[in-house]
Amino acid sequence: MPLRLSSPHVTRNNSTAGVMQKVVLAMVPGIAALTLLFGWGTLIQVLLCVSFGLLFEAAAVRLRKQNLSFYLSDYSAVVTALLLAVAIPPTAPYWVAIVGMLVAILFGKQVYGGLGNNPFNPAMVAYALLLVSFPVQMTNWVLPGETLASATQTLSLIFGGATSTGLGIDGLTGATPLDLLRNRGGVTTSEVWSGAELSAIASAYQYVALAWLAGGLALLYLKVFTWHTPISMILSLLVLSALFYGYDPDNYLDPLSHLTLGATMLGAFFIATDPVSSATSTRGKLVFGAGIGALVFVIRTWGNYPDAIAFAVLLMNLSAPLIDQYTQPRTYGHKGIRKGPRGEE
User: Fold this and answer.
1) Is the alpha carbon torsion for 72, 77, 79, 82 positive or negative?
2) Residues paired with 141 in a beta bridge
3) In terms of CB atoms within 10 Å, which end of the chain has fewer, N or C?
4) Element spanning 196, H or E
5) Is residue 161 predicted with pLDDT exceeding 80?
6) Among candidate residues 120, 147, 174, the one where a domain is terminated
7) Both 24 and 159 in a single domain?
């Protein structure tokens, strides 16, 4: 008599390592765009973050007396390292990457029990701490078009403590487009856009956003995650920015700028979709993504930071368990959630 398998009959060979490898490959276009437009610093930060991320991961796993090769081969530490590397300035001192990875791996991940147990996105935990603790180093951005002539000069800035003036490099650092639009000194948004400074750097950030979008769409096509979280986040930010921009275009940022001049695309497809720290139900993902988009708009518009992906994601990570509790799908065969005599499920 033939063996009959119980449902479900459709299976997938989606190991953690396989999924993480796809995420790493999907980040290549964004990393390449950052390197081409902003210089060698991005690649150096990637190497620093990946190296120390794996080192701290190995140390933590060894201290917990667990299988070292098993946990190092799941690529989760590599993904965390890449997310932090592209979030920090390309010419940030080497110790910024080291401190960031120490916080991300030990305090953002391993202290909770490792992969699958962390309530917050580890890379965003590290980024938020770095931004609050070292604001000068974390806001020292490279201007596109003024990239360094060689990797040697970049290494001197990152490891040697050299300054751009000492290396004979002019215009090395400056404000990001969202910085310029936020701190516009009383002039209207359209007047800032008409200036040469913003128009010269905005296109570079838009190309980077398109690269992240391409990688994110590839992950959607490969079914690494569903569309619910990234699309709801983008739509939420788009609707809110369109409403306020339509009401007062002189004082609010237009929707396209919200989507392309910051880390929106990176956040929507690579950060908000973290399967561990985000909502898990279908309706929950919609609420989770919409909440991130709304918080990004609020913080960018009235908060102290021009870009707000990290803080918005961390706040919604905190809300994810509650969102899941109230958005669980109805059990098949029941009209609603069955509760006991005291109201418990």
Assistant:
1) negative
2) 174
3) N
4) helix 196-221
5) no
6) 174
7) yes
What is the token pair recorded at 19? 């999924």
In terms of domains, do 170 and 189 share one? no
Whether 93 and 59 have beta carbons less than 8 Å apart is answered as: no
Give yes or no for a cis peptide into 177 (omega within 30° of 0). Answer: no
Residue 185: predicted pLDDT: 65
Flag whether pLDDT at 83 surpasses 90: yes
Tokens matching residue 305: 């930071």
Please give the single-letter amino acid code of residue 196.
Answer: A
pLDDT reported for residue 152: 82
H-state helical runs in 64-93: 68-72, 76-87
Closest to 317 measured CA to CA, from 271, 281, 283: 271
186 torsion bin: left (phi>0), alpha (psi -120 to 50), beta (else): left
pTM: 0.87
| Domain ranges, residue 265 | 184-326
Beta strands in 55-185 (DSSP E): 141-142, 173-174
Which 3 state secondary structure label does DSSP give 336?
Answer: coil
Q: Report CA 261 to chain centroid distance, whole Å.
A: 14
pLDDT tens for 197-215 read 677 788 889 999 999 999 9
CA dist., res. 292 & res. 309, Å (int)? 8
One-letter identity of residue 95: W
> In sequence order, what E strands does the chain have?
141-142, 173-174
Asked whether residue 237 is assigned to any structural domain, the reply reads: yes
- The pLDDT tens digits of the residues spanning 1-27 come to 444 444 444 445 568 889 999 999 999
